[in-house]
Amino acid sequence: VCRLPGITAAKVMPDPVLEHFHIFVQLEASLTAPGPTLDAVRAALPAKAQLWHVPELPRHPVTRKVDANRLQRMLRKPVVSWPLEPGEPDPMLKERLAQKAGRQVAWTLGTVG
């Protein structure tokens, strides 16, 4: 990616939750139309890669390496998948789940026992 014209710097990082990669690119300051350059970068990337255009890659103050921790903080936090709805579940749902669990236990005991 760094060899493409118009790219000043790039950093590839794995996603901590999902199975894809994040590619952070810094474009040349003299570039007036970033569209064709970003299209070329997208064409060079695999399918499971998310492209991030940043004005400047953050650097560690001492080592001058790209600061991966600061880039990681830019990524969105994963959406919490449970509970689906806040608060107490519907009483009808609780009753249906209790009945289903009871039938499952009875069926298991009937087949095993």
How would you concisely characterize the structure shown here?
The chain has 3 helices and 3 strands.
Structure in words:
The chain is α+β, with helices and mostly antiparallel strands and 113 residues long. The chain contains three helices and three strands. The protein has helices spanning 35-44, 68-74, 91-112, and strands at residues 7-14, 21-27, 49-53. The chain has a three-stranded mixed β-sheet, sandwiched between helices. It is elongated. 4% of the residues are buried. The mean pLDDT is 85.
Q: What secondary-structure arrangement, pairings included, does this model have?
A:
Layout: E1 7-14, E2 21-27, H1 35-44, E3 49-53, H2 68-74, H3 91-112
Parallel strand pairs: 2-3
Antiparallel strand pairs: 1-2
